[in-house]
Amino acid sequence: MKQEIQNIRNEAIAQITRAKSAEELENLRISYLGRSGKVSQLTKRLSELSDQDKQEAGRLLNETKNIIHKTLSEQKNLLQDAVRDWFDPTIPGEKAKIGSLHLITQAINEISEIFTGIGFTRVRYPEVEWDWYSFGSLNFAKDHPARDDWETYWIDVPDHKKFGPMLLTPHTSSGQLREMERVKTPPIRMLNIAKCYRRQSDVAHTPMFHQFEGLVIDKDINISNLKGTLDYFSKRYFGPKRVTRLRPHHFPFTEPSFEVDIICDICLGKGCKLCKEGWLELAGAGMVHPTVLSNGGIDPKIYSGFAFGTGIERVLMMKTGLKIPDLRILYSTDLRYLKQF
């Protein structure tokens, strides 16, 4: 039996030192030291030996058990050290990167909060629109330059019998008539925010951009209500130090009409690549034209209203402190830029 014990010990050591996984080591432990293992089988045969041989064989079996246990432990540690060569479980894990809302989305949320705080209702109307809602109902002449192929994206589908050709809406003003049709009877306090499309691209224009449109219709609405609303927005969004001005203008869907300018935040009125003369056009505004009210089913003899509209990107560029010199930067995919916000 002495030779059998020696053979099992040598065999176990050889197999354990060649093991490549913890699972393989566990199988070897059971094979040699388990209840039905090879060492246990030899232990059961001790009763067949003489007292002198039994004592010697018992001592060898205990040594073999200890050596197998020790070899198993050492090989297990070696395997763990090999794992640590490429992975150290003591190193703190990397936290998942947390994103943030895009700068334009942040602007939309801030603008919405400002206007809903004074009673406006946020709406959104189709980006794929009909000529009637975008131009016809808003008093645009059939030969108006805005209807040119080089200004508006027209869609190659059959014309609607009532509403005319299909197009990608060039402005949120198309929502004015849809809001009148939806509400039917004033008062109306609409804030329409949506994507718009025009064939323009430079430091102050992109082919796709966002606009917000305000529309208020009720009895006894006048230009002072419009002026007060625009002043309130300017002070809330740009801060009390930014200066605005009004310029007489013409829009087909408002009468009287004017444009709202704000002093450039890049050059503070000195003139630069972006603004040219120190001022940037911020919004178009005016009192809703009686014809537009009639087209929306509202009696202009009873009700009056005002409307204003401007680009989200435009007001964002003029926000104090941002100093964005090119509107196209807002659509950059460079994370070094985007993660600042």
Concise account of the structure shown:
The chain has 341 residues and is an alpha+beta fold. The protein has helices at 2-18, 22-33, 38-44, 51-84, 103-116, 131-134, 174-183, 223-238, 290-295, 312-317, 335-338; strands at residues 121-123, 128-130, 154-160, 164-168, 188-197, 208-218, 244-251, 254-263, 279-288, 304-311.
Question: Can you tell me about this structure?
Answer:
The protein is of the alpha+beta class and 341 residues long. The protein has 2 domains: 2-84; 103-338, BirA Bifunctional Protein, domain 2, CATH 3.30.930. Helices cover 38% and strands 22% of the residues. It contains 11 helices and 10 strands. It has helices at 2-18, 22-33, 38-44, 51-84, 103-116, 131-134, 174-183, 223-238, 290-295, 312-317, 335-338; strands spanning 121-123, 128-130, 154-160, 164-168, 188-197, 208-218, 244-251, 254-263, 279-288, 304-311. The strands form 2 sheets. Strands 1-5-6-10-9-8-7 form a 7-stranded mixed beta sheet, sandwiched between helices. A hairpin with a 2-residue loop joins strand 7 (244-251) and strand 8. Helix 1 (2-18) runs antiparallel to helix 2 and helix 1 packs parallel to helix 4 (51-84). It is rod-shaped, with a radius of gyration of 40 Å. The model has no long low-confidence stretch (mean pLDDT 86).
